[in-house]
Each structure stands twice: as C-alpha cells, then as structure tokens.
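Predict structure. Chain length: 228.
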Amino acid sequence: MTQSHDDKVMTRIKNLLAMAGDTSSPNEAAIAARRARKLMDEYQISEMDLSTVEGSDMGTTDGATGHKTASRFHGQLAVSVATINDCQVKYVRNKITGKLDIRFEGMLVDTVCSAEMFRYLTQQAYQQAERREQGRANRHAYRMGFAAGVNCQVKEIMAERNALKTTAGTALVVCKMAMVKQHFAPVKYRHSNTRFSGDRSSFHSGVVAGKKAGLNRQVNGGQRRLAG
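Prediction complete.
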C-alpha cells in the first residue's frame, strides 16, 4: 500500500522525534527536535489551510507520569511542551494503571509530538537527577530546575513561532489555539511559585540542564502549573 503524503510527513516527524529522544547525543537530539517542530509548522502552513481543518484532524495523545498524585514537575514540564506544540494539556486518570496521565489536546500531529517530547524530557530529567544528585530532596530540586530551564527555552522558541503566518496571513499559533479551544473544553492552568526542599544548587544545576535539553538556547523564564 502506498503511503499518503500526510502519512509520510507523520513518519518523518516520528523519526525525528525518535532521534530527539536519544539522550546519548544531546546536540543531535536538539537538532532533531527543532527539525520536527519546523516540519510540522511548514506542513500546517503549506499543505493544510487551517480554515479547512475538520474534527478528524483534532485528537488527543496521552503521556504517562508513573504517579498516582499530581506532580509539580510533570505539570510544569507538560505545560511547556504543550505551549511549544500549540496544544492544551490536563491530567487524566488511567483506568488500567490507576495512575495519572498527561493528556495533550489539539491537532493530532501536534499531540503526538507533545507526548514524545514529554516522554524524552521526563526521561532526561530523571536520569540526570539520579546520576548527578544525592538524596531524594536534591533530585526533586534538580527536576524542578530542569522544568524551569525547559520553560526558558520555550519562551524563546515561541517568540520565533509567533511570527509564523498561515496562508491567510493569520498568526499560526493564534489560529491553531483558537481551534483547539473551540473543539475541546478550554483548560485553565494554575500559577504557582516553585517549591522544593533540596539544595538550591541542585535546582540551579537542573535549570542549566533544562536549558540545554534538546529545544533551544536559553532565555529568562518562569514556571506554570497544570490545573488539578
């Protein structure tokens, strides 16, 4: 069976995202992640007139947290990932495991990217914290810093993506988010200060790592948190 153009685009995006998940080569992972996002933007601008998007183009993709209760680390990281991929995100209870999953809502191709990006960023944060920090509190502080560092990158990338226009001349991000909110019930996020009981040096080490985690170069940023 011959692959359709849309299927080929999705396959290429998934291959790039798989490369982005290779934590053994951070530089190549960063390049792959950016190429995946750029490819999706080009596809959605040149191949898909957003004014003709139908309900079948929208969808959800879940990412596992492995926890039964809400985690600030997972929430902050998920909001950053959703932002860069023009999605909204919320917690949902997995009926099989009984644990909380992260559900990304938006255009299906964007939710797939979000779930993959969330998976590999979470993996990086946990692996690096385990390798570099001593004690549960310090590892948690490192992960919180990591999420903050990723958020810094997202703000810089979004400054670039907000300049992208659809074929109709409308800002791509604005247009897509309007469709997402129209198709799904809007999600409200709670804002909160970052709290942790570990050493501040562990948090700052996490921030530095998050700013290098396969997205973009660093800028100043803050944190946001998922609604419960």
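Summary: Residues 5-210 form one domain.
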